[in-house]
Amino acid sequence: MKTKTWKVITNTGKQADLESGFEKKEVQKPTHISARDFIHWLAAESRIDDNSLRSLFKL
Questions:
Q1: Paired residues of 20 in beta bridges
Q2: Helix residue ranges, H only, the chain
Q3: pLDDT value at position 58?
Q4: Quick check: pTM over 0.90?
Q5: pLDDT of 21-42, one tens digit each?
Q6: In what order do the strands lie in the sheet with 15-20?
Q7: Confidence at residue 59, expressed as pLDDT on a 0 to 100 scale
Q8: Does residue 18 register a pLDDT over 80?
Q9: Which candidate, 2, 13, 21, 1, places its Cα nearest to that of 40?
Q10: Domain-by-domain residue ranges, the chain?
């Protein structure tokens, strides 16, 4: 199975909006990390794949 890559559209520190082709999703900040770390992880205009996104929530 191919790993999907998401483009980060916006990141407010509490929520990030991601887009992959026609698919969009919102990601809420995990409670165990700070807003600053969340912004660092999902910097606007960066790309993140599904595996990296999952690891963010498993820290």
A1: 23
A2: 35-41, 50-58
A3: 78
A4: no
A5: 999 999 999 999 999 999 998 9
A6: 23-28, 15-20, 5-11, 47-49
A7: 58
A8: yes
A9: 13
A10: 5-58
